Amino acid sequence: MNPLPLELQNQLTSGADAADRLPDWPPALEALRRAGLLAGPVAAEFGGRAFGPIELLHAAEDVAAHCLTTAFILSQRDAAIRQLAKGPPHLRERYLPGLASGDLFLTIGLSQLTTSRLHRGPALRATPTPGGYRLDGEAPWVTGADRADAVVVGATLPDDRQLLVVLPTDRPGVVVDSPMVLACLVGSRTSVVRCAGVEIEDSLVLAGPADRVLGAVGGGGLETSNLALGLSAAAVAFLEGEAKSRAELVPVAARLRSAADTARERLHALATTPDPDAVLRVRVDCTRLALRSTQLALLAAKGAGFVVPHPAQRWARQAHFFLVWSCPRPVAEGVLEDLLPAGG
């Protein structure tokens, strides 16, 4: 796939600092709509451009390299699209055309299905009712919730089975909290969505009930690793620029470039030949790469890089997001091993 148009790259880059620090919806999203990129994940029969898996990864990585906040918002929208594409025909027809055109915005709230709450019980509960379900509890991590027409949420039934439903945000009993003040990506307007006796008819069920409705990998897949790779690409490009006048950075930039290229090849191979264990391994490596490359960029930038709005400080903060976003235990253990001193 061709890189993003230069004008779009510049718009993403120029707005990246504000999107990271301010609670304003990134204006670059409208530019992406005009460029037709919002239609990329949607099938042609619904007005989309039907990008293949490699095309989607290339596009998302390119957006992340210029503005991770915008890329994160799109990743949550695209995750909702993937769930809709697997759902019943009437829900595809209801939502996918508007998502392709940009007239609708949907997002997801699935972290409560993959994050342990020890003895507190499920965060979002679904109780069967005649003709549907009643939702009570909360989806604790929903990006763009106050901008969404609906949220694809996961809930747990009394027998511990799970289901996915489309939750229209204007339903009685739905409350969207004020956006959280995150350490980065503040423009994503990530909030808690609370449900108090929200009635959902059977026609809004996307998947389930099932024991593990999200499958073996859970909520974190190739898309998360791909955004970490995009962030790394920005830091590596900065180091390559610095290396033109600083010979000591030439081998540093070269090693990081080689690692990024290898990770990209593995990601793209897995997009067409899935392997749950390999997906987790590449997630570990992409997270490590994001942490290393952004720290090295900050080191190379020296004191100037620690001052807002220099991008090095932003990249370094954003890299830590991958330690908490869709980070299942095998990934956390793999990253932890890299962070601990030798001989412990």
What brief labels describe this structure?
single chain, 344 residues, alpha+beta, Butyryl-Coa Dehydrogenase, subunit A, domain 1, Butyryl-CoA Dehydrogenase, subunit A, domain 2, Butyryl-CoA Dehydrogenase, subunit A, domain 3, 3 domains, four-stranded mixed β-sheet, four-stranded antiparallel β-sheet, 11 helices, 8 strands, 17% strand, Acyl-CoA dehydrogenase
How are the elements arranged and paired?
Blueprint: H1 6-21, H2 28-34, H3 53-66, H4 68-85, H5 89-101, E1 106-109, H6 111-114, E2 124-129, E3 132-143, E4 150-156, E5 162-168, E6 174-176, E7 190-201, E8 205-210, H7 222-243, H8 250-272, H9 276-301, H10 311-319, H11 329-339
Parallel strand pairs: 1-4
Antiparallel strand pairs: 2-3, 3-7, 4-5, 5-8, 6-7
Helix pairs in contact: 3-4, 3-7, 4-7, 7-8, 7-9, 7-10, 8-9, 9-10, 9-11
Descriptive notes:
- With 344 residues, the chain is of the alpha+beta class.
- It has three domains: 6-106, Acyl-CoA dehydrogenase/oxidase, N-terminal domain (Butyryl-Coa Dehydrogenase, subunit A, domain 1), CATH 1.10.540.10; 107-210, Butyryl-CoA Dehydrogenase, subunit A, domain 2 (Beta Barrel); 222-337, Butyryl-CoA Dehydrogenase, subunit A, domain 3, CATH 1.20.140.
- It contains eleven helices and eight strands.
- A four-stranded mixed β-sheet has the order 1-4-5-8.
- α4 runs antiparallel to α7 (222-243), α7 (222-243) packs parallel to α9 (276-301) and α9 runs parallel beside α11.
- It starts with 5 loop residues before the first helix and ends in a 5-residue tail after the last helix.
- The mean pLDDT is 94.
